[in-house]
Amino acid sequence: MSLIVQKFGGTSVKDAERIFHVAGIIADTYRAGNDVIVVLSAQGDTTDDLVAKAQEIDPHASRREMDMLLSTGEQISVALCAMALRKMGLPVISLNAWQVGIQTTSVHSNARIKRIDSERVRAELDQHRIVLVTGFQGVNKNGDITTLGRGGSDTSAVALAAAFHADLCQIFTDVDGVYTCDPRLVPNARKLEEITYNEMLELASQGAQVLHNRSVELAKKFHVNLEVLSSYERKPGTKVKEVTKKVEKTNITGVAKDTSIARIALVGLQHNPGVAFQVFNLLSKANISVDVILQSIGREDTKDISFTVAKKDLEDAQKILLENKEAIHFDHLTVDDKIGKVSIVGAGVMAETGVAAKMFEALYEAGVNIQMINTSEIRVSVLIDEADVNKAVRAIHAKFFDEE
Amino acid sequence: MSLIVQKFGGTSVKDAERIFHVAGIIADTYRAGNDVIVVLSAQGDTTDDLVAKAQEIDPHASRREMDMLLSTGEQISVALCAMALRKMGLPVISLNAWQVGIQTTSVHSNARIKRIDSERVRAELDQHRIVLVTGFQGVNKNGDITTLGRGGSDTSAVALAAAFHADLCQIFTDVDGVYTCDPRLVPNARKLEEITYNEMLELASQGAQVLHNRSVELAKKFHVNLEVLSSYERKPGTKVKEVTKKVEKTNITGVAKDTSIARIALVGLQHNPGVAFQVFNLLSKANISVDVILQSIGREDTKDISFTVAKKDLEDAQKILLENKEAIHFDHLTVDDKIGKVSIVGAGVMAETGVAAKMFEALYEAGVNIQMINTSEIRVSVLIDEADVNKAVRAIHAKFFDEE
């Protein structure tokens, strides 16, 4: 007998019909002789509706009260799904975060899970009950409700899988797995049978929306076997694990794009030591993440630093840098928000000779000009014109997957 | 400095505008130098909407899961109201039942409050925060969420007032107090300045909808000073307390009607001892409440028993009695669902000579035939034709209040 954690998102439980469908998947897993813990998100638009109610009262509502408000959404989902399973004749109980004992840090709206008490869930599993748990939320040391921020329910599922040493953690989504590329962009993109945690992390942070990085990081840390699969079709998804049995030796795992970024260049910086630290420390303090940094020699005794930030952070970043122009000592600042990033991801991409070159060749043949390059051990990213992004993705995907 | 508990119902917090209005009342109370605990119900139609969602999945959903579902409604209310008060610049915190520690019995959907932990609320009051508490709900010894059934939020408010020795418990409703009669029926009905717990109990159980009996019983038991007042108009309501300073010596407190009842008569019962116990025990086991019992001598060696039940219970009661016809030994059963009950309530109504007679006189003058009479120390009720009820109420009210 295995213990399986299953997570279903908001669209999967949006109405009674979908709830019964999800209950069918859960029932099959339970009837196959497994212990089952299920994590659910809030139904369809529930969270948006609650946010709208709060906005009407105060667009800058306290995060503590927002968490109090939003956490009701998942509680509604688990109660309704428990009713559906019970109607199907299955033993089931719904539990919210404080009943499970999901202990988090105190940061409202972006808390981290610290610990999960096991008594209640264990007792319910011992009674052979299916246990439904509210995703996205926890309780802090003051006994206040916290929420986990973006990708929170995935994180709840992985954390429960880790705490109860689950054999498998299945994340059900509206896609049926992880693809070599976005199938809407490249119709012959292939579904991957397996992918490593590190590859998944790189793909996720390079714009692939399937799993949130936090949940993958947690899965990697606690060796949780993940599977991404469809809640609509009953077929195997993509397994995310430590090591995969890769058959195609020299190939990459996938191609990802990200057009939600902008580039900032600081021109004419003095050659003072620590100037890079100074710049990125200022941005980090304002919670602005920086990606793809490039430093180049400028004219005479100066240098230039270029880097990308999320488009949503562009305005704040510019403001902070200009406010500190004197302290940082730069000549002027330029901005480009018409750029995009295209990445290839795969174990050993940089170790393998010729993989990066093959990517650049595809871009050259497609007439795409590369502005900046950034690499990790298992990833190569290029910064290009936003207008070239889709063309670049198709060219690269074709180069690696069509020529086999 | 006083501690005041204020309770607002669902229509009082149904949208942002009403929430800000309620927040204004709370803010005034707090700014006048009082500690304030506020109990809120679920917004407007929230509970109905949640019930509809559950019905769609299973019309016979488990009560445990119904409580899990419905308790989200009050949590939404307290979070939103906390946002409104905070926007007005007031220190405030919302707490749900498990955060407060409202310990109840285990009966889902109809739990009783056993104990209220005081630490968290006390700590928040010590920080000079307004404390908003979810009404209608608690937690049982298993850590499961329970709800308190009808009138639950009033009960929560009174229980909190008792636990924290509040100086006053204000129940805000859509009427501005307790009247001598339903003002929609008798336009010159008068608002009472004060009423005793016992009078309020009799009025409530005789059909006056202002306060639920459970909350009044609890207030009586713990000597909680209650006030019923309007959330729309800022004016004094009706105080409910142990002893009132009654000025009008021989008058009654109010006239109430109830047309949601039906009468059952068991005809031709054997004169066995314990037959009445047998009948009412059967009904009690099915959770059917019985009111106005009349036993009369029948023909020969038999007797008849008549009693009233709520109309909604009529079918079940008939079924149970007919199923046990042999055991109870009655000849036949008759039913009348076209009846109504009219009551007068007032301290010493039965002790005071002439009060009951005055009521019967009014009915006689109005040409209303009395079918059954039932009395308590502070109440006289008559059972009459349903068609005569409004006429009877007007006649009795005029007799006692217009002739002064």
Oligomer, anyone?
homodimer
The CATH class of the domain at 3-173 in chain A is identified as Alpha Beta
The CATH topology of the domain at 3-173 in chain A = Carbamate kinase
Q: Name the chain pair whose interface involves the most residues.
A: A-B, 36 and 36 residues
CATH architecture of the domain at 3-173 in chain A: 3-Layer(aba) Sandwich
Fraction of helical residues of chain A = 25-40%
Major sheet strand order of chain A: 3-6-2-1-9-11-12-10
Task: Provide the residue-averaged pLDDT of chain A.
Answer: 90
- Tell me the span between the first and last alpha carbons of chain A: 41 Å
Shape of chain A: globular
Number of helices of chain A: 13
CATH superfamily of the domain at 3-173 in chain A: Acetylglutamate kinase-like
Low-confidence blocks of residues of chain A: none
Strand-pairing-aware structural class of chain A? alpha/beta
Hey, roughly how much beta strand do the residues of chain A contain?
25-35%
Rg over C-alpha atoms of chain A, rounded to the nearest angstrom: 23 Å
Count of strand segments of chain A = 20
The major β-sheet of chain A equals: 8 strands, mixed
